[in-house]
Structure formats: C-alpha cells, structure tokens
Amino acid sequence: MSTDKRLSEEDVVAELADGMTIGIGGWGSRRKPMSLVRAVARSSLRDLTLVTYGGPDVGILCAAGKVRRVVYAFVSLDTIPLDPHFRAARQSGAVEDEPWDEGLFLLGLQAAAWRVPFLPSRVGLGSDLPRLNPRLGTVRSPFADGEELVAAPALTLDAALCHLDRADARGNAAFLGADLYFDDLYLRAAPGRRFVSTEKVVPTADLAKEAGTELRLRINRSMVDGVIERAGGAHFTECRPDHERDEAFQKEYAASAASAEAWAGFRADWIDLPEEDYQARVRAR
Questions:
Q1: What's the pLDDT band for 223 if we cut at 50, 70, 90?
Q2: Cα three-residue angle 272-29-50, rounded to 5 degrees
Q3: Statement: residue 92 has pLDDT above 80
Q4: What is the 3-state secondary structure (H, E, C) of 181-215?
Q5: Pairing state between β 96-99 and 48-54
Q6: How far apart are CA 266 and CA 140, in angstroms?
Q7: What pLDDT shows up at residue 1?
Q8: Do residues 64 and 271 touch, judged by C-beta distance below 8 A?
C-alpha cells in the first residue's frame, strides 16, 4: 500500500458529492485552502453545507451557487468586517443560516472529534443564540448541582479541507504561523475524506526542522487522506510566514459583490481557470 498521498485539487473534488457537509479550516481570511475552494467553485457540486470559521471561502462558494446551508461562528475578511457575498446570500435567503458562538462552535468540532454527541457549556445561556439556532439544546447536570447547561451538538463532517504551511507526502503536516486555527479538530471531525493542501511538501526527515519545534507538528498522517502541494494555495488569504494577505486582491474580490456583472467578471478572471493559470496571473500582477 502506497504511503504517498499526494493528489490534485481535481482529485479532491472527485471525492466530494452533492449535499455533503464540508468543514473548511483556517480563520476568517487567514490560511484558507483557497485552491481547493476555487476547484469546488468550478465543479458541478451543489447543496453543500459549509462548517467553518468563515472567510472568503464561504463568500466565493455562496456566490458560485454551491451552498445550501452555512454553519458558522463568523464570516469575515478580517480587514473587511463581513464578507459581502455571504451577506448578500444571507439577506436574500439564498442560503440557510445557522449562527454559532465562537466557543460553542469549538465545542461542536471537539465533540465530533471525540465521537460524543455533544459537549456542555454555560456559553449562550440567557442569550438569543438558542432562539436563532434551534440545533442548540440544553441539558441538566446529573450531579448534585443540577445546573442547566447549553449542549453544543457534534459538528460531524463528511469531508474536511485545510491548508498547512508544510507537509510530507504521507500527510504529516505543520503550521508555521502563530495559530493552528483548530485545523486538527476539522480533520478529526470527519471520519474520512480529509484533505490538506500545503505550500510545500518536504521529506519526512526535514519536517521537524521546517516546523522549528515539534509543537507545530499537530497534524499526523492518521488524520489525512490526501495531500495537495500548491504554493500560493491559500492566496489571497494570509499564510504567514509564507505570504501576507493580498489586500489589493481582497478588495477586488469584495467589490465583485456590487452586481451580478461584477461577480461574473471576477469569476471569469479568477475562478473559471486552471489553478496553474491563476497562480501565474497572481505572480504577473
């Protein structure tokens, strides 16, 4: 059995199906698996449920008509507070809306990773969140305190897509920036179809040196079914230290929400083309 798990973006799309629940790692407009998002946007997939600390991944897939439901703690471009494509889809009712608190969202991923049905928390008590998200329930402590708590249901995924700075061909991977952004939980929350794109594939023996510390080696090969080597695969989101966010590009993306014609132009220029051509155009800017 081959231990080389390297795939293309198109190989990953072939593993997905209509109606799937897909978790997308990263945080806002930071270290998103954008080459995979673009491949999904070009595909015939539809009726997807996205589970994510959202950024332009959500906006692009909503604008491309791929999304039925969004399960999210926020959908932000960081330097632009709210993704305008997601806002338009939400306000028009084009997608079903399932808001979560950031902390409860983390507990939902953790519950799925641990294969338990829910995790309890005081987060959300006394707020409108249970009214806005009927999936959130309450449970009562079985112990003497009898306290009522919010139950965060497990956010079990059909597939997970993440982007890490370095990986080996077997699926071990490391982040080099300040934060893992819970990518390990997304990969554990999916029983299969777990894919990691990476800026660079390196020999296994060099991975610890590339990471600088074993504390950044948080993804192991048992959590990954496929590795996609794509330098610039997170563009235009931030992927420190490999590259900063492309703020000028992000502004162009946000401006494409102004009209159907503007989105059609952006899509023709930056979505409906092979990933190799996308990266060449970015380098030529």
A1: very high
A2: 70
A3: yes
A4: CCHHHHHHHCCCCEEEEEEEECCHHHHHHHHCCHH
A5: unpaired
A6: 51
A7: 54
A8: yes
3-state class percentages of the chain: helix first, strand second, coil last, to nearest 5: 35, 25, 40
The total number of residues shown for the chain amounts to 285
Taking only the tens place, the pLDDT of each residue in 18-47 is 999 999 999 999 999 999 999 999 999 999
Taking Cα atoms as reference points, which of 2, 1, 12 lies closest to residue 227? 12
Task: Write the pLDDT tens digit of every residue in 184-222.
Answer: 999 999 999 999 999 999 999 999 999 999 899 999 999
Q: Give the CA count within 13 Å in the CB-facing half-sphere of 216.
A: 17
| pLDDT at position 78 over 90 | yes
pTM above 0.85, yes or no: yes
Please state the φ and ψ torsions of residue 125, each to the nearest 5 degrees. -65, 135
Of 205, 238, 77, 219, whose CA–CA distance to 161 is shortest?
219
Report yes or no: 83 and 77 within 8 Å, Cβ to Cβ: yes
Q: What is the CA radius of gyration of the chain?
A: 19
